[in-house]
Write a structure and sequence with these properties.
Blueprint: H1 7-14, H2 17-34, E1 41-45, H3 51-58, E2 62-67, H4 70-83, E3 88-91, E4 104-110, H5 119-128, E5 130-141, H6 146-156, H7 160-164, H8 170-178, E6 182-190, H9 197-203, H10 208-211, E7 220-227
Parallel strand pairs: 1-2, 1-4, 2-3, 4-5
Antiparallel strand pairs: 5-7, 6-7
Helix pairs in contact: 2-9
Length: 234
């Protein structure tokens, strides 16, 4: 993606060969970790222009999405209308979610923590609104890969977004989730190819091979965890 996150930037990214392939791969991984969504209450935290919320609703989920940027919420609402989907989108902060404890059975947060000054607070909120036995799935920008090198370079060259962005390891994400009482049960990487469209087309069919062994080299890392039932132990 570009150096400024706007609805137009998301649209342009999806319009490129590299962007469309990469978004499909990440979406496939996150939804696979989220499990069966039909009839479940799902929250997309930091929903952007709604890609994950839309996909969950199309799978039969009862979906809400929050993003701090009103222009993103407007774009997400417009996309939902185009697809005939009823989604509760709200312009709200990820660190102060406007929902009661245990409101959702699945909570998704994708490329949110990388941009926050207080990721711990956002993860704590995700855990708070997740029902007992429910699932939290977080997808983030990996630290050790060619995409991160490119983004760091752009930060050094003056991009405000990439100058302050955080890049994550699976271990750090897992510790963050465990610290708020979630029990991590799956970790997987994706997008092991370099940020080049030809490489994406050629290597995506092989992307799951390194994922079996390591998240090093993955531009995208996903971690799934569940909320404990009352009285149970991890």
């Amino acid at each position: 993606m570009g150096d400024t996150i706007t609805p137009v930037a998301y649209q342009k990214w999806r319009g490129t060969g590299l962007g469309s392939i990469t978004e499909r791969r990440e979406l496939e991984l996150i939804l696979g970790m989220a499990g069966e969504l039909g009839g479940r209450r799902v929250l997309d935290v930091g929903c952007g222009d709604g890609t994950y919320a839309l996909a969950a609703a199309e799978r039969g989920a009862i979906v809400a999405g929050v993003d701090i940027a009103p222009e993103m919420i407007r774009a997400a609402e417009a996309r939902a209308v185009q697809r005939g989907l009823d989604i509760d989108f709200r312009a709200e902060s990820a660190t102060a979610l406007p929902f009661d404890d245990g409101s959702f059975e699945v909570v998704i947060a994708v490329t949110l923590l990388c941009l926050l000054s207080d990721p711990e607070a956002a993860v704590a909120e995700c855990a708070r609104v997740t029902a007992a036995g429910g699932r939290v799935v977080i997808g983030e920008l990996g630290r050790w890969n060619m995409w991160a090198v490119s983004r760091r370079l752009r930060g050094w060259l003056g991009s405000p977004m990439w100058r302050t962005a955080r890049f994550w390891t699976a271990r750090r994400l897992g510790k963050l989730m465990s610290a708020v009482g979630l029990v991590v049960n799956r970790v997987e990487g994706a997008v092991y190819y370099p940020p080049v469209a030809l490489a994406a087309r050629l290597l995506t069919p092989l992307d799951r091979v390194p994922a079996r062994y390591t998240t090093v080299g993955a531009a995208f890392i996903a971690v799934a965890a569940h909320q404990l039932e009352p009285g149970s132990r991890p």
